[in-house]
Specification:
With 505 residues, this protein is mainly α. It has one domain. The longest helix has 48 residues.
Length: 505
Amino acid sequence: MKSERVSGVVLTYISQAIKLLTGLVYTPVMLRLLGQSEYGLYQLVYSFVSYLSLLSMGFGSSYMRFYAQYKAKDDEEGIKKLNGMYLVIFLTISFVCVICGIFMFKNARIIFGDKLTEDELAKARTLLVLMVINLALTFITSVFSGPITAHEKFTFQRIVLIVHNILNPFLVLPLLLMGYGSVGMVAVTTFLTFLALVVNVYYAINKLKIGFSLHGLKFALFRDMFIFTFFIFLNNIIDQINWSVDKYLLGRMIGTTAVAIYGVGGQINSMYMEFSLAISGVFVPKINRLVANNEKEDAISEIFTKVGRIQFIILSLVVSGFIFFGRPFIRIWAGNGYDQAYTVGLLLIIPVTVPLIQNLGIEIQRAKNMHKTRSLVYLGIAVANIGLSIFLIRILNVTGAALGTALAIIAGNIVFMNWYYDKRIGINIKYFWKQIFDLTPALIAPVLIGILSTVLLDYTSVWKLFVAIVIYTCVFCLSMWMFGMNNYEKSFALRFIDKVRRTKK
């Protein structure tokens, strides 16, 4: 299983690298072929349809906890009934998703407001239909991806992700060049989601022999699942508010151009967040096993800190690099008219760094069934974020929307959560931050290089920027190896490099 976790991390970062490299080529072409207005329309519709993901009510995230409980008792029949319950639940959710999509289609003008032209509204309706179908397929896929994760088959899951990241731009670009625009983009995404569903079903049933039992399903099991997942559902609402409401507000208050600018900064933030999930995601089954087996708090604090330090090493490279090179990068990558996206990106990724290096704590809370308070507090802060964002948008335009979200993250994800981890969850948060701050001396050299390069160099070409980023990355890695990383992290890095080398062979 340890080998699967390392392989999972390696393959996730290979997938991220592929996604990043293809994005560097594909995204600028896509932005220019679509134009700022249509890209903004795509982001606007996506931000609204994504609210339908709340229909899952957190059931997908709760699977691991109930699976771990049955596995600890060696209750195979209980696991089959659990799988059967999830099958019924998500088929129902998919049906409800389609019904909601029909309602949204008929009321598109009311939903998207009067800033859209008739042509934009017609295209918005088409995008809406395709996105709803895509989401309904995603719900069904989660019935099979959950058990695959529970079996810690990370290699298979990451390979599927890699294939998706490779196929997507190669299938989309011809459609964009033929003039199909955002509709072609979403059609390809929906097609790939369907393929992923087929592959997951085949692997789960034929390779892992995962069984489903619909006989004797107990309401008591559903009740326990619902009580547990309700607060995950609240947390999902909060995530949707924090990451989607800004684009919806900008679309209604300003227009699609503002949504496009925010969308570029938001896309950078999304890629940034995925970097941290690559590591923490593979430790979810282990956390649930530790809690199910009543392991001591010290063991949980230790793994929380170990994963947090590795995440900080990786994320500090990305966030510091974006601070120094983000502005010329966006200017070259996205093109004219997206300068504000740099400020949006900074306001989102800097504060979100803290919850990202602590995101294993979310799984610890769920495994302990102690995620309720966090969800309630976050909900209050997220609602306040809506009012604050509306106020700030009127003053600061696109930047105001990002600032409102940043303040919400600081209040909830940083201030409150660190207190909650320490006082309620039992994680030694003082030890955690001491271990994180021990890495700061390693940041001195790369920060000095970054400042000097920003002051002395003028990035007028892709190659100048590329060379500067490579030099900065090399200095960062060398400094972190010499002055920051401990023996465990160096060993992890060497295993990672070895896995990458063997993967290439």
